[in-house]
Amino acid sequence: CLATLVIMLVGDTYTLINYVSFINYLCYGVTIMGLIVLRWKKPRIFRPIKVNLLVPVTYLAFWAFLLIFSLYSEPVVCGVGLVIILTGVPVFFLGVYWRNKPKCVNRLIEAATCWGQKLCFVVYPQREED
Q1: Membrane spanning segments where (predicted)?
Q2: Per-domain residue ranges for the chain?
Q3: In contact, 4 and 16? CB cutoff 8 Å
């Protein structure tokens, strides 16, 4: 989020759209690959929608073409897009992977979550106390 704000202040909107479109293509392709892997490794799991494997495989072929073409035509934009994605890795390790955090870190994360919910007008549904 901070990297996007900096790019918006420094660069132009066209460049930001290029960064976001590359990130979207990358995420969509990885998601489709994950679905294919799950369908292969766990074939008996319940799926509300099941399509012929030709559809996601065809999508992945076009996805690979678009991604390779993007990497070839604009490597700097793709590199910045990858850096933007990788800025989430420390956040993942801090918030999810690290289980035995000190209480001060937990309080900081809870305060940031509360601030973000207030900023975006988002509230997680609460259960009624008995």
Answers
A1: 16-39, 51-73, 79-98
A2: 1-120
A3: yes
Q: What's the Cα-to-Cα distance from 63 to each of 29, 52, 116, 128, rounded to whole Å? A: 6, 18, 34, 46
Q: How far is Cα 32 from Cα 57, in angstroms, rounded to an integer?
A: 9
d(CA 90, CA 97): 10
**Residues counted in the chain:** 130
**pLDDT single digits (tens) 62-98:** 989 988 888 888 888 888 888 888 888 998 888 788 8
User: Whose CA is closest to 90, among 79, 78, 105?
Assistant: 105
For residues 23 and 86, the answer to whether their CB atoms sit within 8 Å is no
Rounded (5°) CA angle 78-96-114:
95
8 A C-beta contact, residue 71 and residue 18: no
